[in-house]
Batch of 2 targets.
Target 1
Amino acid sequence: MSGRQLHLNVNLLHSGVYPSAWRLPESRPDAFIDIDHFVRVARIAERGKLDAIFLADTPAINDRIDYRPFNALEPTVVLAAVAAATSHVGLVATASTTYNEPYNLARRFASLDLVSRGRAGWNVVTTADAAAGRNFGFAGASEHGARYARAREFTDLVHALWDSWEDDAFVGDKSSGRFVDTAKVHAIDHRGAHYTVAGPLTVPRSPQGRPVTFQAGGSEDGRELAAATADAVFSLAQTIEDGAAYARDLRTRAVRYGRPPDALVILPGLATVIGSTEAEAQRRQDELWDLVPVEYSLARLAGTLRIDPARLDLDKPLPDPLPLPPDANHTMFLGTVALARRDKLTVRRLLRALGGGVGHRIVVGTPEAIADDIEAWFRAGAADGFNLMPDVLPDGLETFVDAVVPILQRRGLFRQDYAGATLRDHLGLARPANRYAATGRSLSA
Amino acid sequence: MSGRQLHLNVNLLHSGVYPSAWRLPESRPDAFIDIDHFVRVARIAERGKLDAIFLADTPAINDRIDYRPFNALEPTVVLAAVAAATSHVGLVATASTTYNEPYNLARRFASLDLVSRGRAGWNVVTTADAAAGRNFGFAGASEHGARYARAREFTDLVHALWDSWEDDAFVGDKSSGRFVDTAKVHAIDHRGAHYTVAGPLTVPRSPQGRPVTFQAGGSEDGRELAAATADAVFSLAQTIEDGAAYARDLRTRAVRYGRPPDALVILPGLATVIGSTEAEAQRRQDELWDLVPVEYSLARLAGTLRIDPARLDLDKPLPDPLPLPPDANHTMFLGTVALARRDKLTVRRLLRALGGGVGHRIVVGTPEAIADDIEAWFRAGAADGFNLMPDVLPDGLETFVDAVVPILQRRGLFRQDYAGATLRDHLGLARPANRYAATGRSLSA
């Protein structure tokens, strides 16, 4: 195996990406709060040699929970438990820069990196939901640009805290009694527009140097944040052309920040519905779709578009014009509208194409067809890999691992086994140099 | 086995309570950042049928890390990993009300309670350290009374969030498609002096109803907070009389808050140095003490007293008078001064009695002598059990479990096995009723 390699991450969406996944005979409705479910999925991912599992998150109830499961549990707590039950698969948790303290967040992820022996990743989000704001003393969500200005400072600050211990600061020499070389532990003394943080972190530098930073930069601000700070990006693209254009744009921006164009691993979302024949896959999609109540899908679409559901007519196209609302999740909004306009879909057909309101691309087919699709995107430079969203969990992932992964391996596109121990190793990312090494103010200065 | 039963918690102080514990031949210096160490200690505690393990915490470096290990890792991350590797032992994590958002904290502990299937506890602290303040945008620590006013509102608010889902709100009925009965999920709409939080929590009600609330109320404010909100208390007492007086005081206060006097489980700190003979135990203590650099002990004592180390003369008593500084940890300050005055100790002898600056009571002796001490405190009403601080970990705990626990079991004071599955079961605490059951505003209202 040689040459450029695919990266595969699985989005651990409780019962699966379809809102109806929990209603299938093989699903357990309480999977969303059952740690055994998360461990089971992680072990399947590890058996398939996947790069990582990923948990999305919002610190609020922002979906129709009367109809479907949601991200209930705090992701770092879940992934710490999963770390103890796995050995290689990466563990990526979402955490908001708008509703966390940088010191606490840096510490929690550095701790997860130590507990998992170098498998932690942080997915940086700014959290557009008004419901989240109301859980943290605000009347609603803060404005898009303000969220991203704060996010940039927050992310830089967290990276500095992750460098606050040099690699060899911990000594632990019994005979001399020297425990830590405090000349190699550094205050960061950050004083910025939004945060003032002294440091150092309480956590020695983690196995990966820094946990891997993920971002899902869709908007202009989001792309800039990703280009400046991220190691890997969860993107949204419905066509190879859109995917390739996004990748070119992001790499150009990264170069402007003095980074090599391949510094970023770009992973478009990919929902999968797999059958042993094309007809079986279509039947599976029909079954999943028929179990989604239309009022749920409509409410979710209206939420994505930030409009009144009454403005949506099932048998007509989306309202036109449809300006981007300031408080929308840009990625989801633009992806949804682009899909509807391109294929001139009625709302009813759009809902089905969205799989009940997801927004990411859905491929329905045989393992061979899905491998072909993945290979085409990969070879066209539209993706370095994918953020997989199986229709149903764990079954949809098990099918992917048992039927699609071997095809990708035979084609020389995907690893036969893990070559390294850390998530950075899996993603082919270098261990970052420590900004304070051989310089800087120390704790003892 | 019947009658009133002892409760035993172990304070998982990385390498042990002695600052020199990491330097013994059997210790691993990197235990403080090695998850396998935490798992090993937890499994020994579980083999001994102990109620819980406990992690102290400060979100800052506030000790002389050039000399000794410290609480590096974030406790909920550590305990989630430990949860996956154990089945019965309780898991108590410290988290600060001054430097966390209530919504995030409530969510993290509710998640830990689900992940551990009902074994989570939250030790409420207000964090007196100035170094912590500087990691969160403050010039130093906030004032004692202000911290406690905030802590009371914070704790009440967290308890309300833990009630925001009624026990039977989750439905998960595949045939009807009803996932959650949103009439049983409640906004809390808290608007207080310090916090405004809408709720509900994203987490269904946890196995314990609410994670167990611990407190270490030493000061007047701390005792009031514990009496009003805590299920269990970590206390500091050097004599049976002091322990009994503290217990009486706290139970009297609890009654004033309309609670039964036995609503609180009171657990004084108890450091143990165990030998198969009295002489062997003394030798072990000498060995541990001789490895503590005197400049470390002096610096730590000066830190507890919030005075310049130059004011401490090794061969004289503590300075007199020594007023309580506003930014001190009251429990540690008062315990230390009381010990020095009562036994008229020079600073040198005080340091040794403190075991290098701990402040909690140290018992040195045979398993039989330690069991006698525990029984005497328990029967005198000075303790419902203890927060054990073994000299060295895991060895000191292993000796306790193998040699002291069987004596306590033979005397009918301690369980032969766990009778229940949750930490509340172990502690004999009732599952709290949900404040919203059969009433209140729901999410769908």
Target 2
Amino acid sequence: MTVPLEGKPHYILTATCDSRMGTVARVSGFLASHTCYITDMQQFDDVITGRFFTRISFYGNPGSTPELEALREQFEAVAKLEVMEWAIVEADKKPRVMIMVSKFDHCLVDLLYRNRTGELKMEISCVVSNHPDLRSLVEAQGIPYVHIPVTAETKAVQEDKLMALVEETQSELVVLARYMQVLSDDLCRRLRGQAINIHHSFLPGFKGAKPYHQAHARGVKLTGATAHYVTADLDEGPIIEQVVQRVDHTYTPEKLAAAGRDSECRALATAVRLHVERRVFLNDSKTVIFG
Amino acid sequence: MTVPLEGKPHYILTATCDSRMGTVARVSGFLASHTCYITDMQQFDDVITGRFFTRISFYGNPGSTPELEALREQFEAVAKLEVMEWAIVEADKKPRVMIMVSKFDHCLVDLLYRNRTGELKMEISCVVSNHPDLRSLVEAQGIPYVHIPVTAETKAVQEDKLMALVEETQSELVVLARYMQVLSDDLCRRLRGQAINIHHSFLPGFKGAKPYHQAHARGVKLTGATAHYVTADLDEGPIIEQVVQRVDHTYTPEKLAAAGRDSECRALATAVRLHVERRVFLNDSKTVIFG
Amino acid sequence: MTVPLEGKPHYILTATCDSRMGTVARVSGFLASHTCYITDMQQFDDVITGRFFTRISFYGNPGSTPELEALREQFEAVAKLEVMEWAIVEADKKPRVMIMVSKFDHCLVDLLYRNRTGELKMEISCVVSNHPDLRSLVEAQGIPYVHIPVTAETKAVQEDKLMALVEETQSELVVLARYMQVLSDDLCRRLRGQAINIHHSFLPGFKGAKPYHQAHARGVKLTGATAHYVTADLDEGPIIEQVVQRVDHTYTPEKLAAAGRDSECRALATAVRLHVERRVFLNDSKTVIFG
Amino acid sequence: MTVPLEGKPHYILTATCDSRMGTVARVSGFLASHTCYITDMQQFDDVITGRFFTRISFYGNPGSTPELEALREQFEAVAKLEVMEWAIVEADKKPRVMIMVSKFDHCLVDLLYRNRTGELKMEISCVVSNHPDLRSLVEAQGIPYVHIPVTAETKAVQEDKLMALVEETQSELVVLARYMQVLSDDLCRRLRGQAINIHHSFLPGFKGAKPYHQAHARGVKLTGATAHYVTADLDEGPIIEQVVQRVDHTYTPEKLAAAGRDSECRALATAVRLHVERRVFLNDSKTVIFG
């Protein structure tokens, strides 16, 4: 038997709260009492931090305008009881995403392509860069390109401009697609859980600059890339995705870097996909991911 | 906050039924109403077959002897309503498992070792073989070894003996760890969903005999192994796990076979672990696996 | 100690002949007697087919114009003795490559990008398609786009046109980047060892059409793609590269196909790179690859 | 055509020297002039360190007793000219290997098993442990077990005993299969390039103790193990093999450790196999590996 879902509005509920008895029953009971149909539900109870996480994909009922607002209002009562952080969103509404780059374009090209094919379901609000180089590439796809040059002197001012742009463009997520500027602690805090960076190493392997030279010097047999949320502590943000590939003694630093581009693209694209599909939760310095 | 679980009985509930509204709420509501605490819940709704699957790990309450029987009795009402196939078992009770082998011993050695380390949580009821060769290896570990030779003439009789042994030893699962005899259709039916085989190929790649010679002849660049439930249709049973590894032109059939032993051990061990942890569900000719 | 290679011409010698005593010594002796410096030498002796394969990267001496022609002439004596098929080419000369597509563009976009970054060292002579759809994408990069529509009636004529185009554009390699037309036996023969196809399955797994639907129906846990040389026997050409990725019961055929795009891009790009770097040798129905 | 190798003695020549013109020709010319037949030859020229490495598998001629000694004597002239470090060994002669353990037995069990199947071609001279626990496991396989307890006070004396045992048993290789004692700098130096350690982390990721707890705290999405040569600088020895596997937020440190056992077994077994097959060369702080 298949429950007919055709034409019904599709929602995602995400919630996190302290672990306690009956939360699953109360949340699923709420949805059942509103004749909502759950198609996918995942939950995780972290016995170490004592936190509970859940992501529920469900279908509501057509016609009851505006259903989403009503659902949110009524869920508030459950959420209050459980002291939850939560959200209910339309599953098909694409989050607005700002991409930041410098001069390397492989991650940008990859993200634009995956967005075009529909594999990534996001609306790119704009591409921001501290260099003018990639303007034509971006504008050719009908996406606004904003050049915000940064020097040591102008950094504070330019970061304010950046943050204003995030708000003005209603961007929910900022993707640092090989953006080669360190963000200030203050900006990192303001973008907590909202900005994803790609680190061109298999963290915690090689932090800092030139990881491919470090990997070569160490003679590793596997190398990779790490996508993580941005935090003030550089290279230490909560990890979302890691990708690895086999290398050998014939790899020069240049060849390691060339090979690394693939890992970077794949790790960043996966992390962005997981985030825009509301599958990633912050759990202290780590992430919970419902794949 | 952490809910104190110390000393509480730990159960696994598995259930499958037709997809319908409210099942998750009814099941989780049942557990909440019995002050049972859910630590892990996974569910899958197959929109194509219209079947619903769930696996719930939960903690009951100490002291209420015999709680398990009471829970089962009371859950029957919910299950009837939903026309469910279901089970509630003690999470720490190890299923009894019969292993069958011929002469190759790599999968057997691997399973025995992983069982000894506690990675596989099962009680090996006995090892059955159509050859006497591996007796000392098995008995040295204090496990009964039963030699059931098979010829074309004795096959039917010996299979009856085998089935009797499964029942007598209360074995819930039969693992064919490179058992080189084809089971009769009848035996396959009687062991449906209860017998796991390791196929030494990356199915559906190379069916039948000598898959490593086939792989060599075809010049594949990756090879692997497939663990699946036994069905009358040889090599077509529902797949539980597949493992793959890279090979190249220097691999002779012998070297492919040697390399393949690793894949076979890993695929079979994973499949057995998933099964004894009650993570695998039959879904027509396929499986649903809650990893 | 490092031998100074700066400014010296860099060559690749590839050769195959029947296995016999002393071939390595004769070839390397020839190079040493011409004060050529070997930086990389790989060889394989297939004990089953009795064929010998070698690929040597070496540096010649500057100034002796035209050294390449002289080397070739003088090597002919060695080659005759050994009844070799062989070639000596300039390592930095990019082979001319024709790409063929239909409507799917993911492999095309990936190849164009990797060529632009220099990861693939080839000169794209033109993109040929039986559809007009991808013209603007290709021409935007300054690459000629040739539309050759094909119907059952016009197939023979259009294939002649195609073959004429291969010769006219001096294309050494034809890459079928999801070209959805079956080539005639005759064309396959004419392009033997010169045309690479991407099959959207992990061959020999699912031949023919709709492999993602087949994979779904079979409930596989790993899926992948295969890049191979084109032969008259569809889906049976010598395999160059295979890529695999893990999937699970939640993958619909659509999601399998989406996931498969990544495997296809990676398998095809790797195969093309290996070929243009002269690392692939035909060995009957298989390949020898010096990675 | 296949060169008949049946009955001919099979040798491995390994050599390393400074990079210079003509080395390949001189070495292969030497073999050809002695009518030796090369079946596999690999070489690597490190343009950064200016070192040349080669491994040649070849067949000599039967009957000419003692051919090996004669070959070695005559090759000495070539080797002197090139200032080579070199060796010629019989391919089928199994190196004698000493295994050292403490209490964890998974790597030991795995090595013993792979040795028994012939996948690892070595002769285990003895197993040494600072604990008595694994005696019966080892002796049951007919292998001597030597208990050498170590305290801070007795360390120097016991290491002398150990080194004496290495010599007395003519062990060419020492495998630290989760031996939980730090070797003295002096012993590390004496065993340079002759002792392999398994580090239970994906180095350089998590050095020092409790890497699985570190991995858990950092929330990594991939974990692994590293097999490397022992050096005075702990965790910094030349890497031979690395193995990695995917993990997620549900992995506790215990589960990470359990999962890690597989990686450790596979990385160590591969490293030992590569070493005993004479495929690994030291290249400063790195290795060159002919796979």
